[in-house]
Amino acid sequence: MFENFTAETVETGEASVFVRHGGSGPPVLLLHGHPRTSATWHRVAPRLAGRGFTVVCADLRGYGRSRGPAPTADHGAHSKRAMAGDMAAVMRALGHERFALAGHDRGSYVALRLALDRPGLVSRVALLDCLPISEHLSRITPEFATLYWHWFFFARPDVPERVINADPDAWYASRGDPEGMGEENYAEWREAMRNPRVVRAMLEDYRAGLTVDRRHEEADRAAGRRLEPPALVLWSVRDDLEELYGDPLRIWRDWAADVTGHGIDSGHHMAEEAPRELAAALGDFFGA
User: Fold this and answer.
1) pLDDT of 288
2) Which residues are CB-neighbours of 152 under 8 A, at least 6 positions away?
């Protein structure tokens, strides 16, 4: 994976962030979702580098090989604002003062927070397979609760740690396979899933989502804050976003003045399942 990319750990003060970076040209930061690591981009990053971008793929705080502070009672240590601060520090350490940004799934919430909090850093933002957390929570239906039950299970104290760590291979068995993910990506992911510290950090990400992150988004809406950089919204047509909400762009237009997007013929992990189509869409958007 990631031939001709450099792998290193960047110290941000609060966290140690594992990154892969390569290519040359305008910088692009790619953020993975749950339960993946930065390796999920191994089929997309080289394509973007081939189109003339410097590509940075980072493990989010606590995921994969990144490490952060101990969890806090208010879950703020794993808030999207804290994670966004990590990514701003990483890009600055790598010499990038302004950059394009893409996030998938949980990584999209970090991308949204970074673009809202520090719009001067972000030239363009792509948000993949997501709506703002507060938008999901304001639209709870039996269908949403059935499909997204894990949000609420993960938010429980202590219980999900005991369940997952009792047999992580069984818990995550349906989340990926070597053929679909690529053997090296799969091996890296499974190693991370067997680390109780990683499991705890991933659960704290969800706990923050239903508490401090939701409050931050609600404060944004109350203050009339919207995304300033142009936004691209992409979703997997074989996932559940359209099933639950219809056209996601209709909701995102309340959050961004300049938003475009479309569906991609893929299941949820589009970077692994439809890398050619995703890289083309991101490359066209970031190069516009």
Assistant:
1) 77
2) 145, 210
The tens digit of pLDDT for each residue in 22-31 reads 999 999 999 9
Pairwise CA distance, residues 82 & 71, whole Å: 12
Annotated catalytic residue: which of 32, 78, 216, 268?
Answer: 268
Range of the domain at 132: 6-286
Q: Is 105 a catalytic residue?
A: yes
Q: Which two tokens stand for residue 164?
A: 């997952």
Per-residue DSSP letter, 94: T
Measured distance CA(118)–CA(116) in Å, rounded: 6
- Which token pair is 56? 């940075």
- Our count of domains for the chain comes to 1
Pick the closest to residue 282 from 6, 41, 9 (CA basis).
Answer: 41
Terminal Cα-to-Cα distance of the chain (whole angstroms): 28
**Per-state percent for the chain, helix, strand, coil, to nearest 5:** 50, 20, 35
Identify the residue whose tokens are 């039950």: 149
Domain assignment present for residue 1? The answer is no
- CB–CB of 10/19 below 8 Å? yes
Round to whole Å and give the CA distance between 123 and 102.
Answer: 11
Global pTM exceeds 0.90? yes
Q: Where are the alpha helices (DSSP H) in 94-182?
A: 106-117, 133-137, 142-147, 149-154, 159-166, 168-171, 178-181
- Answer yes or no: is 19 within a domain: yes
13 in any annotated domain: yes
Asked about 268 being catalytic, the answer comes back as: yes
Tell whether 235 is covered by a domain: yes
Identified catalytic residue from 86, 105, 129, 239 = 105
d(CA 257, CA 166): 46
